[in-house]
Amino acid sequence: MKINWFKYSAPMSFYPLAGKLIPLFWIAAIVCIAGGLYWGFFKTADVLNDQKQYYRIIYVHVASAWMAMWLYAVMVFWAMLGLIFNTRLSYMLASATAITGTVMTVIALATGAIWGKTSWGTYWDWDPKLTSFLILLFVYIGYIALQSAIDDKRRSDKASALLALVGLALVPIIYYAVNCPDPTECASLHQESSLKRVESNILIGMLVTTLGFWMYSFATTLMRARIIILERERSTTWVSKLAEITNSERKH
Amino acid sequence: MTSAFWIILKRDLLLALRRRSEIFTVLFFFVVVISLFPLGVGTEEAVLKKIAPGVVWIAALLASTLALDRLFSADYEDGTLEKIVLAPSFLSISVLAKILAHWLLTGLPLVLISPLVGLFYHLPINTILVMMLVLLIGTPVLSMLGAIAAALTLGLRGGGVLVSLLVLPLYIPVLVYGAGAISTSMMQGVSIEPYILLLLAFSLLAMVFSPWVTAVALKISIE
Questions:
Q1: What are the tens digits of pLDDT across the range A139-189?
Q2: Which of A148, A169, B40, B107 is deepest in the core (most CB within 10 A)?
Q3: What is the C-alpha to C-alpha distance for residues B31 and B117, in angstroms, rounded to an integer?
Q4: CB of A99 within 8 Å of any CB in chain B?
Q5: pTM: predicted TM-score of the whole model, two decimal places
Q6: What is the pLDDT of residues B142-168, one digit of tens each?
């Protein structure tokens, strides 16, 4: 069977598909987040090493931090697809992803600050991971700012896609620069990434919450993409024939 | 192909020399920013020596972002840029010429004036030489990365602030290694070579990719 992968690259056929998928992703997100947090808050140890109850913020912190980085990759993927195939929908998905990514970065920074205050005694330190996340936030904001500054949609799509690619190329270099500013030594407050050492009980909670955050990202991205489609395609006939459009016009 | 490079380089330099005040604006901005810091943080010699590397680099970053506006905008407004894009030579080569001219007019003067900073901040001669060296290696990178952002924001309202927002995070490696080399040169028995090598590597990388990416960005902005 030959599947036509490009069928859903047309906003007209993608719009109803997204509409059908959104509730599913919302349900999955709520179930996973609620389950993961329940497991994390009530089924895991009260004390982790020398950290007391407050370590439980890990379930939100790690999940949002992972999603913040992952969504940047997703955004670049759509941007690249847009530049290669020149499909409008890819650009729309890229810009829809950027907002959720920014939100995740902010959540990661905020929960990190709270956790930092309780375990390191400070809200902020110029630790490599904190600095990298601050820069990730700047890169996201730059992308959104460039996109909203250009009125011409074609240009704004392509220009911001190119910026996302440049960001992707430079992020490893920036990461290395802030990670190891002094090439002869490297120090950080964060411990080495230590998934293997994490208790499996806590790991389950973390992974399930992350899955929930991922589903949430799908849901919000698709919702935002639908809104972008409606905005940009408002003059087309298929939009004017949509049930939600005709209904709202009848009411007025 | 090379002739296009030389023609554009000569033209840009000639245009700038006819309006010399613009070169000096960037230069004096750099000097003013640097001389404001001691007034803000106090004039103790130890403190000044400690902050000098960062201050020099941040002043250089700000000066070069302010100057970026001039890289393409005048040519864009009078239509020359369109001719350059349509010309039957490699656009990246023409872009490289424009970047080089821009660096000669805005980056090189900063390198040459930087010993003055050394006097302001009581730096030893050896450190001043290191500072000139890293500025010489680092400022071209600022022009190269800046060109990408300048091309992307061509002709936009409030483009100047937007350019700074886009480009300043990308300058971080230059800032870290450039300032690191200067601070290290003030310590005894530590080699500054790793910093210089990393900076050179970043500089070469930018030189290879930035004219090409800038050319793509210009085509997006002009079409």
A1: 999 999 999 998 888 899 999 999 999 988 888 888 777 776 665 555 555
A2: B107
A3: 8
A4: no
A5: 0.87
A6: 999 999 999 999 888 777 788 988 999
Chain B residues near residue A142 by CB distance under 8 angstroms: 165-166, 169
Q: Which residues contact A129 (CB under 8 A, 6 or more apart)?
A: A188, A190
Q: How far apart are CA A46 and CA B212, in angstroms?
A: 55
The total number of structural domains in chain B stands at 1
Please name every residue paired with A185 in a beta bridge, in sequence order, or none if there are none.
Answer: A182
Interval A91-119 mean pLDDT: 91
**Interchain contact, A139 vs B169, CB within 8 Å:** yes
Does the pLDDT at position A3 exceed 70?
A: no
CA-based nearest residue to A134, from A162, A160, A164, A112: A112
- Chain A residues with CB-CB distance to B195 below 8 A: 183
Yes or no: say if B63 and B110 are a contact pair by the CB < 8 Å rule: yes
* Three state DSSP letters for A59-114: HHHHHHHHHHHHHHHHHHHHHHHHHHHCCHHHHHHHHHHHHHHHHHHHHHHHHHHH
Domain of residue B154, residue span: 2-222
Question: Which pLDDT belongs to residue A49?
Answer: 63
Residues A200, A204, A207, A209, CA torsion sign:
negative
Nearest to A155 among B145, B165, B220 (CB): B220
The verdict on A186 touching B (C-beta cutoff 8 Å) is: no
Q: What's the longest Cα–Cα distance across chain A?
A: 70
Residues of A in contact with B193 (CB under 8 A): none
